[in-house]
Amino acid sequence: MDEEVVSKYLKAGNIAWRVKQFLYSYVKPGVKLLELANTTEDMIRELGGEPAFPINISINSVAAHKTPLLDDVNLVIMEGDIVKIDIGIHVDGYIADTAITLCYNDKLNTLVEASREALEKSLRVVNEGVKFSAVGKVIEETAKKYGFKPIKNLGGHSMDRYVIHAGDIIPNYGDVMQLGKFRRGVAYAIEPFISTGNGYVIEGSEVSIYALSKTKFKGLTTQEVQITNYILNKFRTLPFCERWFSELRISLSNLRMVLNSLKLKNMLRQYPVLIESSPKAYISQFEETVLITSKEVIITTNPTLYC
């Protein structure tokens, strides 16, 4: 792998690490979700990166794909919540993907510890040639030891330049049918999701994150062309949200109308909010990015951990 590419992966990972340290001190009950999102993404940019996807702030039974809308001005973190914060940073398209869980419910501390331990133990398994299922087995065994379940239809993933999910899936359980192996020159996100519920997520009705599904287009209105070109130039095919159009002079209602029209014309991919199938369940998540080079396996998003 080219040294310049490695350097960009490491820079993205360092930004992710610094942002996580800020989040641990900043987030608390009473913090507004919209302020949390804007502050975090602004910090990523100030540190020399770009968000690789909108910050995910997933509370309680929500697992992923929840980011604040522009009019979510009254949503706050509450006492008793368990909050997953998943951030992505890219430097010239090279991505760091990482997540933490912050818990304001003492009854759920064991759940948080289970997911943290599952991540740390599974990272020790990662190396070139190791089967993805070996990581999943460690995650599943750790979850069961604590009396919980891994979420089986979520998992880690390979990444490529400007691509969050590049094809490989690292299961959160010992899937014997998963024959894939870790490869040199590839970055991977390892992310155990541990649940008090059924260990399975379903799609909710809310969608707040999109991505461009086509880079060539026709049959669009003038305004749709303007918005699509903006998306392509600013985000390429990486995920985005309505909060990221602030520099365009367009009303929120008009923006939503255009995005909905682009969705109906199959120009946009949607990311529905993912929720535990057991509605009263709680979920915890931790995630780090690993980079496999010819010399070593580097955890780019956490300098305190080693594979």
Structural commentary:
With 307 residues, the chain is α+β, with helices and mostly antiparallel strands. It folds into 2 domains: 3-203 and 276-299, Creatine Amidinohydrolase (Alpha-Beta Complex), CATH 3.90.230; 205-272, Arc Repressor Mutant, subunit A, CATH 1.10.10. Helix content is 31%, strand content 27%. The protein contains 6 helices and 14 strands. It has helices at residues 3-26, 33-46, 109-123, 132-145, 222-235, 252-264; strands spanning 50-59, 62-64, 82-91, 94-103, 149-150, 155-159, 169-171, 187-190, 193-195, 201-212, 268-276, 283-285, 288-292, 297-299. The protein has a 5-stranded antiparallel beta sheet with strand order 7-6-8-13-14, sandwiched between helices. Strands 1-3-4 form a 3-stranded antiparallel beta sheet, with helices on one face. The model has no long low-confidence stretch (mean pLDDT 96).
